[in-house]
Predict the 3D structure of the following.
Amino acid sequence: MKNSAQARLLATRDEREFMSLRDLSARVGADPFLVQASNGNTSIKLSGILWIKASGKWLAHAMQEEMLVPLELAEVQESVQKGTNIASQYAQNNDLYPSIETAMHAVLRHRVVLHVHSINAIAWAIRLDGPDQLKERLAGLHWRWIPYVASGMPLAREVEKAVAPAPETDVLILGNHGLVVCGPDCYTAETLLWDVERRLAIIPRRFPEPNATVLAMIARFTRWQFPDVDSLHALGTDAVSRKILKGGVLYPCQAIFLGTTMPLLPPALVLSKFMKRLNGSDRTPPFVAVERSGVMLREKMTRAERANLFGLVQVTQRTEESVALRYLKEAEITDLLGKDEHGYKEVVVMKQKADSPRRGITEGVVAR
Ligand SMILES: [Zn+2]
């Protein structure tokens, strides 16, 4: 009798924490400075079950949609030890795939884990001097810098290695990627998240006004439109941002959602040539930056692409010209673009075997 009452009490407490995570996920997901589209993931460990955000779901919708996948924590931890793919058991199931970062959530011992693509954190995480710069800003916190590795098992292994000698670690800065904060409950994790955000905050650089006359000429063509957010124009009008982006890819979501090269046009480009180059072709980029004039968006640009473009602009506006940056290497970009929409290379291979032996591995990539 006593045991069942205790079990009920535990279940109620678990339920409350579970709902707190959904509520926190929705709020974090609705903040474009923390999460853009389907990126970011949250989890909670309750009575031996790891509840983790499903791949491809938007945290912002956490209160309206089921998006937390229940996994046996011990099984996931065993998979990580053996190096077997956690997703493989879900390969035949078309419903919810656990997030690509499930292994990382499992190796962190804290009950609540929040992984976000914080604009401020990324602006530090792309700098070669990031670890040194953060020493002072994060002083007093239990934090670690994890140099860039691919998402999934490689990242989980690096995190496991980094926290092994310091299990109290509850803040991770992921090089060229983002931020992780942890806590024993949602309230503590959220409080820590805002503390870190405050410490990492950078004031964005001001940028010159867009040239509406030049952009209006492009707007006359049907497939292009003005952005609804003014700050996006910075990619065209701000010389420092242009220079930074010419250097290459700063973090995975940039390459996945916006392509590997910056669609930048010189201001004097003849419009007819512009249209020939960019209108109608399948390879038309979702946006175009016109040097010194601003940015125009393709009509068909998806919400996910818009959210990621907003993020990219915010990161570059927080990065100084004089700072040395670490761009993703060619091999790192090839690796991340070779994965399927859930980020699991192995699942693609399994699905291909089931579908058609002639399909190429890169087909269907970047379908998020
Ligand atoms: Zn991430």
User: Anything to note?
Assistant: The chain has a mean pLDDT of 86. The CA atoms of residues 241 and 316 lie 5 Å apart. Residues 2-29 form the longest helix (28 residues).
